[in-house]
Design goal:
Layout: E1 3-8, E2 11-17, E3 22-26, E4 33-34, E5 45-50, E6 53-58, E7 65-67, E8 70-72, E9 74-76, E10 82-85, E11 88-93, H1 128-159, E12 186-190, E13 199-202, E14 206-211, E15 215-222, E16 225-232, E17 238-239, E18 242-243, E19 249-250, E20 255-259, E21 262-268
Parallel strand pairs: 3-4
Antiparallel strand pairs: 1-2, 1-11, 3-5, 5-6, 6-9, 7-8, 7-10, 10-11, 12-13, 12-21, 14-15, 15-16, 16-19, 17-18, 17-20, 20-21
């Protein structure tokens, strides 16, 4: 889990774990990270953490927020980034997740005409159809071999004079539990704008949506379903006609999302 190390003049003051989706920083006591100094605004900045990603946003503070010496309004935090608020520094230490981390995330889907062509489902190659029955036949053949082995074992037992099992009055053994159903795949379909009709399958753990610098949200795929969370921008996403707050909101079949001036429908793939 990522964490922040608060220091001043090289002296470490406190360590904070980013265990919440939204961690607020400011001078007022209600902040998750309170820095009682007049150079820090009452509600100075916020860090939104989704899975292994953390996004810093300045909340219109009086003296601004620096990352590695550069003023920022919104910033995607990288390991060892140093956030400066007046004389105080917050060093961001990301959790090590291995080299495969980058492959687990979608790039930001910029909602402008032509930007979603890469997400359109590709047509199956013409030569793929003839091979499909052969591939499907392999499991069937394996099942037939297994059935033949079982039948042979029963026949061998009968030839050896093995007596048939007799009912003992005991309750039959419980059937093997059924395999858990495969998780459903969510899909986004753009309803308005130049990309109307385009679809995106939400197969990654995290998918970013919106226009960087204007409005960005993320959809996370969790064991219990899909959730949408606001990340960047003064305006929050609208879900079924109602503006969501800063918390993660579950998505249901045929929910309508409005983000960065574009309307989309979420539904489960059948």
């Amino acid at each position: 889990m990522a964490k922040l190390i608060l220091s001043m003049d090289g002296l470490v003051l406190k360590e904070y774990t980013l265990g919440k989706e939204r961690t607020t920083i400011g001078r007022k006591p209600h902040n998750d990270i309170q820095i009682d100094n007049l150079a820090v605004s009452g509600e100075h900045a916020v860090i939104v953490t989704i899975l292994n990603d953390s996004f810093l946003e300045d909340l219109g503070s009086t003296n601004g927020t620096l990352v590695n010496g550069q003023p920022v309004k919104k910033h995607f935090l990288q390991n060892n980034d140093v956030v400066e608020l007046g004389k105080y520094k917050l060093k961001y230490l990301a959790e090590a997740t291995g080299p495969a981390k980058a492959a687990d995330f979608e790039k930001t889907m910029v909602l402008r005409p032509g930007a979603m062509k890469a997400f359109a489902p590709a047509a199956a190659p013409a030569h793929a159809a003839p091979g499909a029955p052969a591939a499907a036949a392999k499991p069937a053949a394996a099942g037939a071999v297994a059935a033949g082995v079982a039948a042979g074992a029963l026949a061998a037992g009968a030839a050896a004079g093995t007596p048939a099992a007799k009912p003992t009055g005991e309750a039959p053994s419980a059937p093997a539990p059924a395999a858990a159903p495969a998780p459903r795949i969510g899909v986004l379909q753009v309803l308005t704008g130049g990309n109307a009709g385009k679809e995106l399958e939400l197969v990654k753990p995290l998918t970013r949506l919106g226009k960087p610098g204007v409005q960005v949200a993320v959809i996370t795929r969790r064991p219990q379903g899909y959730f949408i969370t606001h990340v960047e921008g003064a305006n929050f996403p609208v879900l079924n006609g109602k503006t969501v707050d800063a918390q993660a909101h579950p998505l249901n079949d045929h929910d309508i999302i409005e983000l960065a001036g574009v309307k989309m429908e979420f539904f489960f793939k059948t």
